[in-house]
Amino acid sequence: MSFKNFKCVPKMIFGRGSFAQLDAVLAAERKAANDFVVFLVDDVHQNKSLAGRLPAKTHDLIIYVNVEEEPTTKQVDALTAQVQAFNTKLPVSVIGLGGGSTLDLAKAVSLMLTNNGGSAEYQGWDLINNPAVHHIGIPTISGTGAEASRTAVLCGPVRKLGLNSDYTVFDQIIMDSELIAGVPTEQWFFTGMDCYIHCVESLEGTYLNEFAKAYAEKSMDLCREVFINNHEEKDDKLMMASYMGGMSIAYSQVGACHAISYGLGYVLGYHHGIGNCLAFNVLEEFYPEGVEEFRKMMALHNINLPKHICRDLPDETIAKMVAVTKSMGPLWDNVYGAGWEEKVTDEMLTKLFRRI
Amino acid sequence: MSFKNFKCVPKMIFGRGSFAQLDAVLAAERKAANDFVVFLVDDVHQNKSLAGRLPAKTHDLIIYVNVEEEPTTKQVDALTAQVQAFNTKLPVSVIGLGGGSTLDLAKAVSLMLTNNGGSAEYQGWDLINNPAVHHIGIPTISGTGAEASRTAVLCGPVRKLGLNSDYTVFDQIIMDSELIAGVPTEQWFFTGMDCYIHCVESLEGTYLNEFAKAYAEKSMDLCREVFINNHEEKDDKLMMASYMGGMSIAYSQVGACHAISYGLGYVLGYHHGIGNCLAFNVLEEFYPEGVEEFRKMMALHNINLPKHICRDLPDETIAKMVAVTKSMGPLWDNVYGAGWEEKVTDEMLTKLFRRI
């Protein structure tokens, strides 16, 4: 029996207003006079107050990234080329400032700057050969756990799959709850539910151990404080929930919801957060208590999911989503354990998709 | 306002039986043929089955350490000299296998191998200049949180104080709950209570933030599962409680109990675990609910604390303990906040000590 040697983020700053310390964190990395850093910033922040607070020097590179669509290997390769064209030296740090997609872009670019070829070659597990450029994650929306995880999920030419490696993990994260205060309600909710759903899938899964359980249980409690009790410290609590949800996945795995959400996302382009919610809402047979509580939280926040989005789709579109979903072996193994292949039938998945 | 940039253990293995993976972990550090590692092992394991399972090569150094007394700077300096006399090269890893004291010895030796002078010079905060030798912590008794913390607490010529630095933190920990199964009841209880008391002090303290709170609350819940509910997975849960308790302290601080326990330990030589219990038992005015629950747990496990150990001590002995206890500024600041100096009087402390 072999247990994962879990690589986690080695340095973190937590606190309201701690974004102001980014300058000091970068100062420790800037050694030569011509050292530069790259800021990858979600373009929702462009021309907003946060943009004005970036501790950028004149020779740094700021790139605003658009993440309306899920990040792609193509986008990563283009960003990497842009950094390489900007300066023949490597940057001393790559900073991701945004939600899960932006954080994943920053992770992926920091890896591709030191690993040859295109990022699609590295979709999978432990395919990365060289350590990444120092990289920092700063969430401005919470729930994905991207700040804590060892993956950078990308849509590639063949599949949606992460660059999973120890080198993917951020060297530093800054968790400043002030930054997540202004997120629009739906996005806040969908992204927060990513965390809640992680925890359900993890706690109901066959992979669970006490490490994952402790983190997932606490993360779930925090989600309840945020989405049910409307706690006055809810921004801090959601930030911790997201981080702890990410830590939980280290020794567990997501499940049926993420498998279906991947299918939805890959074929129809749904963003991860809403994709999960759409999928979770038809999974009452898998996660009865979780789905019930999730619907309660939707009602509390007046969230209305789009309806019948798959009902009238052509059979071949459904079949494509079913194929993607079915290919998520480890997720189904976590749901059913050994012998999952017999249980995850095209028929069962097709029925579920038709209900979405 | 400035928030701590918290350095945590970057790699960890959690799981029953995971000690068997130490060999593979060390293989990654052993590069040259003459590379060697140092095992610092609590001498309670000498000639026991665990000793036979050490993945030691012929040119490695195994040292059994006696930790009946709290670790001292003298002991650290002697161990460091022993390693230096063994081989002119530095070891590629120092492994601590034991409880909090042994883990602290391993941290301290790994630091002193790369930092000149005696360890007493480094008692304090951020006094260490050079990174330590790679070091691995493997608890065989849980509760202190030493596996997760950035300190190595040592009794020095002048005071009991830790080597607190980012370099102190283990590079790797292995949390194998099989290793803590055979601990004698009293030691198991006293060390577990170190964790429980950490959490109480942290949650009731002025330094608390949501990061520390989330960890301390979960750690406390886990302690209850272990010490009240006698959960069947209690060894795993205690191991997680200890780790999470240690993580909590990163953004909080211990309080009145540890301050008094340091006084007791320094002057009378009480070990940290039992010292905390002796102190906590007279602190009902500081921590009413915590002390009540603690007494309930003592009763459940038939733990009888020694009584009247300070009642008849000479005034000057009490005064010495009071002085040590009073000098713990940050701990009292965490208890009372600004102005603590006026509240922490000799009279108040003397009264408390006389009740122990």
List keywords for this structure.
homodimer; alpha/beta; Rossmann fold; Dehydroquinate synthase-like, alpha domain; 6-stranded parallel sheet; 3-stranded mixed sheet; globular
Note down, in words, how this protein is organized.
- 2 copies of one chain form a homodimer.
- The first copy, chain A, is an alpha/beta fold and 356 residues long.
- Chain A is built from 14 helices and 10 strands.
- A 6-stranded parallel sheet of chain A has the order 2-10-7-5-3-4, with helices on one face. Chain A has a 3-stranded mixed sheet with strand order 6-9-8, covered by helices on one side.
- In chain A, helix 8 (256-268) crosses helix 11 (315-326).
- The radius of gyration of chain A is 20 Å and the shape is globular.
- Chains A and B meet through strand 1, strand 2, helix 6 and helix 7 of A and strand 1, strand 2, helix 6 and helix 7 of B.
In terms of topology, how is this protein built?
The structure is a homodimer of 356-residue chains.
Chain A: E1 5-7, E2 11-14, H1 22-27, E3 37-42, H2 49-52, E4 61-65, H3 73-86, E5 93-98, H4 100-112, E6 124-125, E7 135-139, E8 153-155, E9 160-164, E10 172-175, H5 185-203, H6 210-227, H7 234-249, H8 256-268, H9 272-280, H10 288-300, H11 315-326, H12 329-336, H13 340-343, H14 346-355
Helix pairs in contact in A: 3-4, 5-6, 5-7, 5-9, 6-7, 8-9, 8-11, 11-14
Question: Oligomeric state of the chains?
Answer: homodimer
Amino-to-carboxy terminus distance of chain A = 39 Å
Helix content of chain A: 40-55%
Annotation field: number of helices of chain A: 14
What is the averaged pLDDT score of chain A?
A: 96
The succession of helices and strands of chain A, N to C, reads EEHEHEHEHEEEEEHHHHHHHHHH
- CATH names the topology of the largest domain in chain A as Dehydroquinate synthase-like, alpha domain
Biggest sheet, spatial arrangement of strands of chain A: 2-10-7-5-3-4
CATH architecture of the largest domain in chain A: Up-down Bundle
Main sheet attributes: strand count, strand direction, barrel closure of chain A: 6 strands, parallel
The total strand number of chain A stands at: 10
The amount of beta strand of chain A, in percent, is: 5-15%
Globally, the shape of chain A reads globular
Annotated CATH homologous superfamily of the largest domain in chain A = Dehydroquinate synthase-like - alpha domain
Q: Indicate how many domains the architecture of chain A comprises.
A: 2
Give the C-level CATH assignment of the largest domain in chain A.
Answer: Mainly Alpha
Measured by residues with Cβ under 8 Å of the partner chain's Cβ, the largest interface is:
A-B, 36 and 36 residues
Radius of gyration of chain A: 20 Å
Structural class designation of chain A? alpha/beta
Q: Low-confidence parts of chain A lasting 5 or more residues at pLDDT below 50?
A: none
